[in-house]
Amino acid sequence: MSPELNALEELYRSRTAGSLKLSNTAGKYLPGGVAANGKYLPPYPIYMIGGQGAEMIDVDRNKYIDLLMGAGVHILGHSPERVLRAVHQQLDIGVHYYLPAEAEVKLAEKVCQVMPSVEMVRFLNSGSESTLMAIRAARAYRKRSKIVKFEGNFHGQHDTVLVSTLAVEGEPNSPIAHIDSAGIPENVKENVIILPYNDPEIAGEQIRKHADELGGVIVEPVSAFGLGVVPAEIEFLKALSAVTTETGIPLIFDEVVTNFRLALGGAAEYFKIVPDLVCLGKILGGGFAIGGFGGKREIMDRVVTPKVGLWDLSEQIFQSGCFSGNPVSMVAGLAVLEELEKGTAYPQINSLAESLCSGMTALGERLGVPLLATRVASIFQFHFTTSPIKNKRDALKANKQAAGLFHLGLRAHGIMASAHPLFISTAHNQGHVGRVLEISETVLKQMLKDKLF
Question: What is the pLDDT of residues 201-216, one digit of tens each?
């Protein structure tokens, strides 16, 4: 083993020479060699050439059991036959019209049928667009500029919400808005009130205090990327629902990750709490670019529906996009939702995720490793800590370096994982779960041997 490398990185490098070569070329044209920061996994990215079912293959022809699943997109696995068939049929008749298509109507109708929180919906092209437009709609409806956001919740990459997701500032019970990216003006903080996640008393008190200033309250029902798959506690969600109903402030659920993942009806069905607006994405597009926002007809019709004649700048929002509602994403998404309607997917994937997480917990106990598995339905992540996690301050206490090395070790042994939330699909089976547990034991034992904790 090279003295400057641990055994896990040595193995990673020995298996991925082709990716290293491609990374060096890509770095000349793509910042970091990638099209998005989330694709950069140190020490260098692994470049893929194919994905089928629960597995992927890289440029070095290494196979991986995939736990990232397109960042949560592929609930039916990579390249499911039903989705590909629908897409091929659409490609034969047209790729992009700009004008509305029948497929757009069909997917909208299906979303409104299965989600109790959605009476009208608009389709977009990304999760960040979803939260951007949902917040804009809420502000237009309330005619107020400020929003409440919770520490550690991730709502995309636009200026308003890239605040207090990655870092914290101020006291735990009185957080201060912290800008998480260069290039975001400091005055953005003036319109964002940051509150602790999973604290119903503080949330109720502060939302009432600032009610006259607030255009909306946005929350992740499951804080995925920012906290590492930590659910909102039911009393917290009940408190948010009660105080926003009392004050007339739109409650926005960011379900870009959880829509159709927790249940067919999303978090509203899973938690039995119905928001005023919901942000959609990922699974909704069946593997193609997608975003969406929807909710109560009263809000959507008033501020989103175009009015005949002059644009009403006092109330109407502007929301458009060349590729919004493109027919390829629409037919792919509809195929996925129709498959999920059969009802067999959720028991299967939830059971497999529970088996994997309970197995990891038992493994940590047996090896004496401080390993915590957090899970909601088929979404999960592993943390190196002995303490429960309910908010961002708790999450920051976990050993991030150990987690990074563990994920590196998994990738080196053919399990695709990272700090991003992990997912089970209907293409996974108990054999995959057993293999992940086997490899995890190998990696943890190597980390213990090399004193990497």
Answer: 999 999 999 999 999 9
Residue 312 has pLDDT above 90, yes or no: no
190, 256: one domain: yes
State how far the Cα of 33 lies from the Cα of 22, in Å rounded to an integer. Answer: 8
- Rounded distance between C-alpha atoms, residue 418 and residue 67, angstroms: 9
Strand partners, 259: 263
Cα pseudo-dihedral 348, 354, 360, 363, rounded to 10: -100
Q: Residue type at 404?
A: G
The 8 Å CB, 24+ separation contacts for 49-58 are 51/78, 51/79, 52/77, 52/78, 52/79, 53/77, 53/78, 53/79, 53/427, 54/78, 54/425, 54/427, 54/428, 54/429, 54/432, 56/416, 58/16, 58/18, 58/19
Whether residue 279 is contained in a domain is answered as yes
Residue-wise pLDDT for 152-166, tens only, equals 999 999 999 999 999
Same domain, 110 and 212: yes
Q: What is the pLDDT of residue 237?
A: 98
In terms of residue numbers, what domain contains 279? 81-340
